[in-house]
Amino acid sequence: MSAPFRVVGKPIRRFDALSKAVGATVFADDYKMPGMLHGKVLRSPYPSARIVRIDPSRARALPGVVCVLTAADIGYAKMIADIPGQTGQRERPRSETPVLAWDRVRYKGEAVALVAAETEEIAERALELIDVEYEPLPGVFDPLEALKPGAPVVFEPDNVVARWRIRKGDIEAGFAAADLIIENTYRVPFVEHAYLEPEAGVAWVDERGVINIRVSTQVMEHFRTVARTLGIPQNRVRIQGAFAGGGFGGKEDITVEVFLALLALHTRRPVRLVYTREESILAHSKRHPYIMRYRTGVKRNGRITALQVELIADSGAYPYLSPYVSLYSTVVAAGPYRIDNVWVDTVAVATNNPFTSAFRGFGGPQPCFAYERQMDEIARALGLDPLEVRRVNYLRTGDTTATGQVIHSAALLEESARRALEALGERTPDRGPIKVGQGFASYMQPYGRLMWLHDTSQAWVGLELDGTVVIRCGAPDPGGGQLSSLCQIASEVLGVPMENVVAYTPDTALTPLAGTTTATRQLYMSGNAVLQAATAIRRTLLDRASKYFEEDPEDLDLADGRVFVKHDPDRSMPLPDLVRICAAEGLPLSHLAMFKAPFRDPIDPETGQGDVFPDFTFGAFAVEVAVDTETGQVEVLKSVACHDVGRAINPAAVIGQIQGGSYQGLGYALMENLIVENGEIKTPSLSEYLIPTSVDYPTTQVILLESGTGVGPFGAKGIGEPALTPVAPAVVNAIVDAIGVPINEIPVTPERVLKALGKPTVTS
What is the DSSP letter of 119? Predict the structure, then answer.
């Protein structure tokens, strides 16, 4: 490839931008079919109960009802195998999520029966006619209580879902060497994904007996889970992915796929199932609440000598991805700092609360809130500048993390923090009772999956005879522009204008499997797969062109739809002419590539030592807030995000991801709080569960650093999840800077501000 880049690094409009802007994009719940039935799910009204009896006879007798399914109809033993290996930890017997509950329910909203009817209204009426007799059982709703002897047990033998640990250095010697020890406990809440499009899909059985499911999902590979659950061959299930109206991790797990497949299989008619907003909030996973205890030993200059951490995560009623999420939290619990003596204990705990699983950041935002609040509290205790305390501890290239993994890429921590603070500018003056504060937070976030999972992604790239390019890659696009990035990579490598590159949406029957759109992995994995495939075709083109021009292949280039001699650009040939020559001679003009992530052995389970992730993204977020000390209201005045993205394939898309992530992070810090009391969600709709709108906060200024040292294509790093991670601690650090007293729990509501100030609140 010649430099500079011609397409990569340019803010090119995404190929789906216009269709989305004018409302022409077809999402999963837009699909309708002739003769279609409407599906509905009956859900438990109890968080913990035994099912004594289910009688669907009245519902089945209702005119217009075509099918009612209970666990007895699909086989009691059928499970959703939705916990792939639990990160190497042994799966707990019978802890898998059942398709339909049969003996007991473990959270409010658990699926008990399915209905398919001629109209949505009839289906809803049928749900009311299913007779279910429950025997309420004692539940457990606090992870600390769930760990105590004698607590109700969600799954035998106890409520421990997963444990992880890190043991590095000599923790006792580290604390003995400290001049000061700082101890604090931090808490973060349940959080709802609140994506624009609720769970939706349509399924039908085609003339070959294949179950087709068009669905909003982040994971195309769920077709295998559907097949296992139904007891049919995997080649008899086809998932067609639609553009998703947001996911943020909430569509990583199975949602409507199995329900749709069962109803379509039993009725032999198309079935449509779309959750209401209230059902979506009730029935899908949440971000894990954490209780985090940090004990840090420091020298007078701020150098950390020892860190002891305890992380307690509420897993809810079923494990889902809690073992993975809690492992990610464990790995980054020490933050982006060089600490010789580290002791981390993490436990994910089963309760009868809503189940928790993947959410943007995947276990990174929770400990980041704790370790960055802790760094500011260390600075306050020592009377030092918060940046100076971090500066003496920041990881640098070549250093090792708490798990002993060497940082090979650039770790631009000091530069990102300094640039963000400089851009934030001088502090706005106080105005009477309104106090102004500034704060920032640094972070480290992995991208790519665990290195002992043999992660792969495939992509097919082909040239048509007219010089246009087709990409087939099974990468779901939940709104982050993943497919557009793949087009930009192919355009760069093959010298074809972006308008002549097409990427097909994922379809398990037609596009190569590319793995999950999770873990900030698609640009890294599928981007590298497209890069490999396009490079193979480029090599074919240049090898053939070298004979025509009588020049070495390295002296030729592709750009603007032509091949030319670098030192004499007037000597050129239109790309379609070269393509036709290659085709006539039988030279390959397409290539299927598989990118394989580096593989390592699992970490030592006793010490947590070992390589865990392919690479890390580093950056900082700085914010200025105004706090009304009479009302407790917090106003965000300005904010700056500075991240090393390695290489910005499309700067406009990268900036959009960072600004979107900052908004989610601001909501996490200041307003989003899924209130759960005794297993019942008290904020069941978007009328009660508040998320930021475009007028709530000012636009975040974005500063992009491009070290070019990432393991993604052209040196890119992942940014989709990292964009959110440092926001909440930066906001709370700014609030504490304004009011002078610590707050160690989010969201920072007006009531919490007034309580911290020792002032009365409405509820006090």
Answer: S
CA 576 to chain CA mean position, Å: 41
Q: What percent of the chain has pLDDT over 70?
A: 97
Nearest to 459 by CA among 470, 469, 448, 472: 472
> Residue 281 in 3-state DSSP?
helix
Q: pLDDT at position 76, please?
A: 61
Domain ranges across the chain: 17-23+456-596, 31-137+199-274, 290-450+602-756
Q: Which residue, among 408, 437, 405, has the nearest Cα to 424 in the 3D structure?
A: 437
- Digit-coded pLDDT (tens) for 236-271: 999 999 889 999 999 999 999 999 999 999 999 999
pTM flag (> 0.85) = yes
Q: Distance between CA 209 and CA 585 in Å, rounded?
A: 41
In the predicted model, what is the mean pLDDT of residues 638-658?
Answer: 98
On whether the CB atoms of residues 562 and 495 are closer than 8 A, the answer is: yes
One-character DSSP codes across 337-377: B--S-EEEEEEEEE-SSPPB---TTTTSHHHHHHHHHHHHH
Radius of gyration of the chain from its Cα atoms, rounded to whole angstroms: 27
CATH class entry, domain 31-137+199-274: alpha beta
Per DSSP, 402 falls in state T
What are the tens digits of pLDDT across the range 478-508? Answer: 999 999 999 999 999 999 999 999 999 999 9
CA dihedral of residues 667, 669, 671, 673 (deg, nearest 10): 100
pLDDT at 83 over 90: no
Options 1.10.150.120, 3.40.50.450, 3.30.365.10, 3.90.79.10; CATH of 290-450+602-756: 3.30.365.10
Residue 59, class by beta-carbon neighbours within 10 Å (0-12 exposed, 13-18 middle, 19+ buried)?
buried
DSSP 714-749: GG----TTTTTTTHHHHHHHHHHHHHSS---BSS--
pLDDT at 78: 54
CB < 8 Å & 24+ apart, contacts of 574-578 = 574/467, 575/467, 575/494, 575/495, 575/496, 575/541, 576/465, 576/466, 576/467, 578/541, 578/544, 578/545, 578/548
pLDDT at 89 over 70: no
DSSP secondary structure letters along 616-676: EEEEEEEEEEEEETTT--EEEEEEEEEEE-SS-SSHHHHHHHHHHHHHHHHHHHHT----E
Could you please state the CATH topology (level 3) that the domain comprising 17-23+456-596 is classified under: Aldehyde Oxidoreductase; domain 4 (3.30.365)
The single-letter code of the amino acid at 225 is T
With CA atoms as reference, report the closest residue to 447 among 186, 725, 70. Answer: 725
Q: What are φ and ψ of residue 488, in 5° steps?
A: -65, -40
Torsional class of 587: left (φ above 0), alpha (ψ -120 to 50), beta (otherwise): beta
The enclosing H or E element of 390 equals helix 386-391
Cβ neighbours of 77 (radius 10 Å): 9
Asked whether the predicted pLDDT for residue 86 surpasses 80, the reply is no
Do the domains 290-450+602-756 and 31-137+199-274 match in fold?
A: no
Confidence check: pLDDT of 764 > 60: no
Residue 523's nearest CA partner among 615, 660, 406 is 615
Q: Tell how far CA 15 is from the center of its chain.
A: 23
In order, the DSSP letters of 664-709 are HHHHHHHT----EETTEES--STTTS----TTTSPPPEEEEE--S-
Contact 95, 319 (CB under 8 A): yes
Residue 575 has which token pair? Answer: 């790309």
| Residue 762 pLDDT class (50, 70, 90 cuts) | low
Structure tokens at 759: 């002032």
- Decide: 243 and 475 in contact? Cβ < 8 Å: no
Pairing mode, strands 469-472 and 556-559: unpaired
> What are the CA-CA distances from residue 641 to residues 66, 582, 638, 691, 732 (Å)?
54, 48, 11, 20, 16
Q: Which residues of 599-631 are buried (b: 16+ CB within 10 A; e: fewer)?
A: eeeebeeeebbbbbbbbbbbbbbbbbbbbbbee
